[in-house]
Amino acid sequence: MEARDIRLIEVKEGILAESQVLAGKLRERLRGTGTFMLNLMSSPGSGKTSLVLRTIDALRNELRLGVIEADIASTVDSEKVAARGVKVVQLKTGGFCHLDAAMVSEGLDAVGPQDLDLIIIENVGNLVCPAEFDTGAARNAMILSIPEGDDKPLKYPLMFSVCDVLVLNKMDALGVFDFDLRAVEQRVRVLNPAIRILPASCKTGEGIDAWIGWLRGEVRAFRNG
Ligand SMILES: Nc1nc2c(ncn2[C@@H]2O[C@H](COP(=O)(O)OP(=O)(O)O)[C@@H](O)[C@H]2O)c(=O)[nH]1
Ligand SMILES: [Mg+2]
Known about the structure:
By secondary structure, this protein is an alpha/beta fold. The protein has a single domain, classed as Rossmann fold, CATH 3.40.50. Helix content is 41%, strand content 18%. It has 8 helices and 7 strands; from the N terminus they run αβαβαβαββααβαβα. The protein has helices spanning 11-33, 48-59, 76-83, 101-111, 152-155, 157-162, 181-191, 208-224, and strands at 36-41, 65-71, 87-92, 118-122, 139-145, 165-169, 196-199. Strand 6 (165-169), helix 7 and strand 7 form a beta-alpha-beta unit. It binds guanosine-5'-diphosphate and magnesium ion (MG). Guanosine-5'-diphosphate (GDP) binds next to helix 2.
């Protein structure tokens, strides 16, 4: 058998296309229930769970909230959300480094979007794979935290390209790290001119109002749209 006779099957493209179709169906389903779903992505430790908890505290009296947590192995994040009395589902990906629409669909079945105004997905901590998969969310958000460095848009361009908003978290640590805010903004704008960039600190609360304002506006626009 010669090399030219070997059949090459692009499995990745097939998987992505399948997930894309299902993601469209999930969006229709969420449109039907009037539920805004946000997909939150970032590296491990950049502050996803902290931002989810801040968001719960700010919006729990205003919106009916649910959270879909995704983790390779543990339930530590969902326990923190559950302690706030908020509806949460833990998806254990068993080694998978991202969520696809099929996994989110199972999460939605469990969390029950018909009773919710806002669902936040805390995706698996990773700047690579989650960016490739449409989860069916209305908006994508990402966090880059100051200790990770200002070169990350250069290294992980797709993630910065697919997000509607970028939270620059751990601003309280800016003095400790060589992080050039202007450089990061320029690098991000080349990839994604329309992205909102919000400096914040989940520790001190700096910038959280702007984040909540952005999210509230998106939920409102979704409902009116
Ligand atoms: N100094 C500082 N630490 C933070 C901030 N946000 C989160 N952390 C800490 O960073 C660590 C990881 O946060 P976590 O929310 O679990 O990140 P996740 O892995 O992305 O969900 C925890 O020790 C948090 O307390 C922040 O704005 N400033
Ligand atoms: Mg977390």
